[in-house]
Amino acid sequence: MVTKHKTDAPVQEKKRTSKAVKRKAKKALEPEDDEDSEVEEKVDAKVVAEKAPEEAAGKVAKKQKTKANRFEEMAAAADKEPEEPRGVIYVGHIPDGFFEPQMKKFFSQFGRVTRLRISRSKKTAKSKGFAFVEFEEEQVAKIVAETMQGYLLFDKTLVCHMLAKDKCHKLLFKGHKRRMINTSFNRRKRHVALYNDRPTVEVNGEQVPRHTLRQAERRKRSDKKLTSMLADLGVSYDVSGADDVAQSRGSKSPKTSASASPRVAAAAAPPAAATAGAAASASTKKKKRKLA
Fold first, then answer.
1. 8 A C-beta contact, residue 245 and residue 237
2. Which long-range contacts (CB under 8 A, 24 or more apart) does 250-259 make?
3. Per-residue pLDDT tens digits for 218-244
């Protein structure tokens, strides 16, 4: 048995459109699409034409970016004055330990600090106790100078005042970004090495440090003094021979022992008359003691 299902909802039939109507609709829509496409193409062409010179100029600028052009740009930027002139203040009586990082952080609470330089020693890089601070705005610099004048900081009373433009040297902030180094130890080490590593000369198979001009002058003065002293005592002695003996013995000093050099022995030895008198006096003293 075949059962048929009956539905209560009515079935809607689709309306069919003829081919002629469809053709007319297509023809009506085609010109509109062409116009829209033409408008879009014109807009795109205008945008491309506007962007083309800018891109070309950018490419040309990138190609022509040379060192000379950079220097010209830097010079132009330097010549260009800011809207408000910058202000420079002098800060004196700076306490020890208040250096560039701390000073820049301290003064930045008033305004932007463009440059800062503490005067230091070229040899030891130690602070001389005064500095120069440049602010981006001159009014801020005036306020800082008035506020910090007489300010007590680490048992030091700061001295602050504004610097006029005619008193600001062009090289005032030269090397403000460079860190100075203490070179005193290196200089001392170099001088010690120069003094100790003197050129040597060979004497009797031994390397002896060569005498300097200063040592030669001192030796001449001492020889002259010794000869005059021996002449007063009535002793004639050739001092040049003593110098030859001292040089032949090497780097040992003749002053260390009396037997090392005849110079010292001759200077220390009394004359014959004096020795005879001293011996006679000693013998009389011994005889007196025996008689007593």
1. no
2. 250/203, 250/204, 250/206, 250/208, 251/208, 251/209
3. 989 999 999 999 999 988 888 876 666
Contact 227, 213 (CB under 8 A): no
pTM over 0.70: no
Q: What is the DSSP string of 146-213?
A: HHHTT-EETTEE-EEEEPPGGGS-TTTTTTTTSPP---HHHHHHHHHHHHHS--EEEETTEEEEPPPH
Q: DSSP class of residue 136?
A: S
The alpha carbon of 285 is separated from its chain's Cα centroid by a whole number of angstroms, namely 79
Kindly provide the b/e burial profile for residues 68-95, where b requires at least 16 CB atoms within 10 angstroms of the residue's own CB.
eeeeeeeeeeeeeeeeeebbbbebeebe
Strand, helix or coil for residue 130: strand
Structure tokens at 122: 């070229």
Contact 135, 91 (CB under 8 A): no
State which fold the 87-165 domain adopts. Answer: Alpha-Beta Plaits (3.30.70)
Gap between the Cα atoms of 37 and 111, Å rounded: 59
* Distance between first and last Cα of the chain: 185
Tens digit of pLDDT for each residue in 78-131?
666 656 789 999 999 999 989 999 999 999 999 999 999 999 998 889 999 999
